[in-house]
From TrEMBL:
It comes from Streptosporangium fragile. InterPro entries: Pec_lyase, Pectin_lyas_fold, Pectin_lyase_fold/virulence, PEL. Residues 1-32 form the signal peptide. Belongs to the polysaccharide lyase 1 family. This is Pectate lyase. Pfam families: Pectate_lyase_4. GO terms for molecular function: lyase activity. Keywords: Carbohydrate metabolism, Lyase, Polysaccharide degradation, Secreted, Signal. Residues 68-277 form the Pectate lyase domain. The keyword Signal applies.
Amino acid sequence: MNGISHIRRRPAAAFAAVLLAALTGAAGAARADVPTASAARTAAACDGAPIGFASVNALGQNGTTGGLGGPTVTVTTAAELKDYVGRPGPYIIKVSGRIQLGGMITVVANKSILGVGTTAEITGGGLQLGSTTRPGNNVIIRNIKFTNASDDSISVTNKAHHVWIDHNDLSDGYDGLLDIKRESDFVTVSWNHFHHHSKSALVGHSDNYTADIGKLRVTYHHNYFDGTDQRHPRVRFADPVHVFNNYYRANALYGIASTENAGLLVEGNYFQDVAHPTHVGYAESAPGRLVERNNLYVNSGAPETAGTVVEPSTYYAYTLDAPATVPAKVTAGVGVGKIGC
């Protein structure tokens, strides 16, 4: 169960063909208040497709395509952003410049929220994917800087599934920078820079929220947890959560925690100056299960491990980078301005 065999990147030809067809004839983005017919043919994402759980065909959704097929709009104000992320149907929403929010705003299904260039920023608030009555399924968030959130920077909640959070910069929030909870599922978190914060990434609402059992399948790959204190991630109930090829640097409390019978596979990561790379159980939470393999621990403590986990390769194919290459590759590739939005 713990071996790797015949692991390779998931073919993306079909998805790429859809993107190419969508791009053909596109005439550029519209202003938020004037969507055009030609803009409706632009691609849902800046480029590429997710690896990991967001790519899986499940729950009636074949991978994560966001706003593919919907109009493209460009937003520059909080009012415009709130309007378009809450509209029914698919939309490709381009965030231009700095947008000041007063709290969390709700994102509903089939949206791509893409920062333009290197200066797109959401500050003072955050994005909540879905409400109890309006699902936040099939959502892509890419190339945006999140700062000074009054609650979470991004909250994947209320049974949201098929979510791809990629190439963002998250810092200086109030609570969690990125929380995934309340029966959400099939999420990929990739190429993000987490810094200047304590509680980075939570999976699972609470020790008592057992409705999360059988849900919360999440992939974390090629993220940079840069001096953040804890929760990279902290996980309850989920099985499996796949944590591969991430760079951990100077995390003061711990790197990863598996609790409440969660199952984590931690592989190919690079831990530098991390006294407690992995915990099995944490604080008042009961122990989980954690398998580690092929990680590097540089000036770091020994990992805690326990039990067995479901192999993520039973869900999707992936390529594992050599852990020694992770610091250079991740620091060069994470955050905003690395993809062409």
